[in-house]
Amino acid sequence: MSNTYSPSRIGAFDKCRLSYKYEYIDGLESDIETIERFFGSRLHEALEEFYILVKGSRIESLEWLLSKYNDLWKKNYVDNIKIVKKELKEEDYFNKGKQCLIDYYNKYKPFNQTKIVDTEQLINFDIQFNRIKYPFRGKLDRLDWNNRENAFEIHDYKTGGRLITQQEADNDWQLGLYHVALNNKWPDAGKIKLIWHFLSMNKEIVSFRTKTQIDKLQEMAVEKINEIESCNNFSPNKSALCDWCDFQNICPLWKHPKKMEEVPINEYKKDPGVQLVAKYKKLEEGKNELKEEIQKIEEEQEKIKEATIEFAEREKISIIDGPEAQLKVDIKEELRAPTRAEDQETWEKLRSLLIQEGKYEEVSTVHGSMVNYRIKNKIWPPDFIERVQQFLKYQITKTVRLLKK
After folding, report:
1. Peptide bond into 264 cis (omega under 30)
2. Is residue 96 part of a domain?
């Protein structure tokens, strides 16, 4: 296998196969950066520089951390950064990041809980299944050594607005695979803690993996790699994440809508695509109006049908004459086999009897009409019909048909 995979690469395939193709197969690069990505990068950078100093036994103040964050923001911010949520401005995201760092600093000071091994560490490792190795790579936000618990800690900073559940953490691929990487590097590592820091919520979630879970994770990762390698249909997936996609302007789901956003209103209405949608919508609305009208007609017909049956029964007739047509009323009383949905127990008993007597195929898996036909026309032996009838019920059916005169 020539490809080197990563947890983020596998996640990209699951989110949208077309976006995956654009990035990892076609090698397209985007010049679009969203404010959320920019926001997350600046928080990671500020914490990285802070922890580099902590590793050297130098604990800087909260003011230093906030000043570093401010400098990183101003140095890197450009006007064409995409802000999807129009109700928010750059200042709102900056202040949110500032509060994240204040909360984080106050929660973990004086930063003596662990020993810092490394920050923003690039790692290359293999996962193995059925004696075949598959190359992987990733980046650890922070790796610590906890003397008190005799354990490595893999820390991951999350800057999004969604807090995962404990179950999601326990099934997470990314840190689970980083657990594999640490085991590869230090086979005697022993206990490994996986820790997520949800900075926007000032919340920490901790998870562990057993050997069985690690083995299963590697098997699942290999299955996913095989799925990716054999994929020949990279279809787009429309979701709430589309607005943050790097390739929205070339995606077939969004190419025309995004283009139309830039067109003046007088040209917009002349666009052939816009005109096709308008015509189709008008016809669809017409269909819906007709459906409503048909439903009203059918409801009225049902009332007339009930009145017709009542009239025919009262007058003891089966055909009612009209000016241009007639109505024929049929009232039948016949045995009826139960459906599986109505009475599963009786249905299964009847089915078992039919199978036992070699009659199952004749009635196509207990088809009511076919059972009734064989009883009515005495196709089956009398004693067998008698045994079948114990599962049947009499039902009266009343139908009305329109006849030409």
Report:
1. no
2. yes
> Based on the domain organization, do 14 and 120 belong to the same domain?
yes
Q: Which residues contact residue 138 at a Cβ distance below 8 angstroms, ignoring those fewer than 6 apart?
A: 6, 7, 8, 122, 123, 125, 174, 177, 178, 181
Decide if 51 is inside a domain. Answer: yes
Same structural domain, 21 and 155: yes
- Is residue 239 within 8 Å of residue 222, measured between CB atoms? no
Residue 355's Cβ-side half-sphere holds a number of Cα atoms within 13 Å equal to: 7
Domain-embedded: residue 309: no
Distance between CA atoms of residues 401 and 127, nearest Å: 70
Report which residue type is found at 214.
I
Crossing angle of the two packed helices 90-108 and 35-55, in degrees rounded to 10: 30
DSSP letters for 77-120: --TT-B---TT--HHHHHHHHHHHHHHHHHHHTT--SSEEEEEE
pLDDT at 366: 60
Our count of domains for the chain comes to 2
How much is the pTM? 0.68
Section 88-115 average pLDDT? 96
Burial of 178 from C-beta contacts in 10 A (0-12 / 13-18 / 19+)? buried
What is the rounded CA–CA span in Å between residue 235 and residue 399? Answer: 49
Question: Tokens 């050997």 correspond to what residue?
Answer: 211
Of 180, 207, 230, the residue at which a domain comes to its end is 230
The tokens of 63 are what? 């003011």
* Helical spans, DSSP H, in 16-89: 17-20, 35-55, 62-76
- Candidates 381, 399, 398; CA nearest to 389 is 381
- Count the neighbouring beta carbons within 10 Å of the beta carbon of residue 209: 21
Cα 10-15-21 angle, rounded to 5 deg: 70
Residue count of the chain, please give it: 405
Last residue of a domain, which of 210, 230, 250?
230
Domain extent at residue 348? 318-404
Question: How many other β-carbons are positioned within 10 Å of the β-carbon of residue 355?
Answer: 12
27 contacts: CB under 8 Å, gap ≥ 6: none
Rounded to a whole number, what is the largest CA-CA distance in the chain? 104
Identify the H or E element spanning 383.
Answer: helix 382-389
Question: How do residues 55-100 score in pLDDT, each as one tens digit?
Answer: 999 999 999 999 999 999 999 999 889 898 889 999 999 999 999 9
